[in-house]
Design brief:
334 residues; alpha/beta; Rossmann fold; 2 domains; 10 helices; 28% helix
């Protein structure tokens, strides 16, 4: 389809309680820059049930306009209802590009919408820019198992659509709310929704792991030596009020649940502090945590690649370093 405007849309995914998931608000930050280069408005699209809080968040984080679809059929995500609503909006307003968070739901919604609109989709992006001469989005994502980064453009079809990993971008500062709010009355009949949410299982393996929202993460890798090694990792995490993360090697070995995995095939995170313990620093892991504000690496191998991205490094055995670190933190707190 042809674009009717130069606007850039950000799909702001909502929780069941109507609040915004972090990734949608995060994407308003690059969205503002990209919309400016395209010469259009930054439009937040909020779909859900009872979404006043999500609308408020989009308003406070820089959206020029907010399109809202609110209805009981959107309380729980379903492919059919959300795809119908989003495609209806795109066909009406004709944005030139759209960003969707690469959450479980976003990875389901993006391909369905792009197929219906006969346009392209670049999945799992970690960087974004605009070619100012053509207005094309430059989508950057890992390729060949994360061993290189590919930049992709979709010059022939609109809207240009991409899913972007949570945690890659930071939320912008709260600003004065002044967005134009447009409410669209789009309802989907029950017989058009072919799936139904029967039960929500909120915990995985007895733990609720929020890596993407964590401000401090302490991660363990192959160097922890086994599942019991994570006891030392958890001790530091508990002292700091942090969330426990892990490398793929530790997860594949069965030492800790996949919900803790950071990296290309896990979660992309951007905490204020990331402490990597016994993690060598394979490119697949770095792709998931290199945007952290401060990175501390603890590894007995002085040549480990993790030290190339770390702000602070300790060469030593983590089982000797971490207990001392825990004791010093406790002393400092009195």
């Amino acid at each position: 389809m042809e674009a009717k405007t130069k606007d850039l849309w950000v799909f702001v995914e909502t929780n069941e309680d109507g609040t915004a998931k972090n990734v949608g608000i995060e994407l308003l930050t690059p969205g503002k820059m990209m919309a400016g280069k395209q010469g259009g408005a930054l439009v937040a699209v909020v779909i859900g049930s009872g979404v006043d809080e999500a609308v408020k968040a989009a308003n406070e984080h820089g959206a020029d306009k907010i399109i809202v679809v609110d209805g009981p059929e959107y309380k729980h995500y379903t492919t059919d209802a959300y795809a119908i609503a989003l495609c209806t909006l795109v066909e009406k307003y004709g944005p030139t590009s759209m960003l969707i968070g690469a959450t479980n739901n976003g990875r389901d919604l993006g391909p369905r919408v792009s197929c219906r609109l006969h346009t392209g989709l670049t999945a799992d992006c970690t960087a974004l820019d605009i070619d100012e001469e053509t207005g094309n989005v430059a989508w950057t994502r890992p390729a060949f198992g994360g061993n290189l980064m590919a930049t992709i453009i979709c010059p022939n079809h609109r809207p240009q659509i991409g899913t972007v990993r949570p945690g890659v971008f930071k939320k912008g500062d709260v600003t004065a709310a002044g967005a134009e709010v447009i409410k669209e009355d789009i309802h989907v009949a029950d017989d058009q929704i072919r799936t139904q949410v029967i039960e929500l299982i909120r915990e995985m393996g007895g733990e609720n792991v929020d890596l993407e929202g964590a401000e401090i993460i302490v991660s363990g890798g192959r160097g922890v030596g086994g599942p019991e090694g994570f006891d030392t990792i958890k001790a530091l995490a508990d002292t700091l009020g942090a969330t426990v993360g892990a490398s793929r090697a530790a997860v594949d070995a069965g030492w800790i649940a996949h919900a803790h995995q950071v990296g290309q095939t896990g979660k992309t995170v951007g905490p204020k502090l990331y402490i990597a313990c016994g993690i060598s620093g394979a490119i697949q892991h770095l792709a998931g945590m290199s945007s952290s504000d401060c990175i501390v690496a603890i590894n007995k191998d002085p040549d480990a690649p993790i030290f190339d991205v770390a702000d602070y490094g300790v060469v030593g055995n983590l089982f000797e370093v971490l207990p001392v670190l825990v004791d010093e933190i406790k002393k400092a707190r009195g």
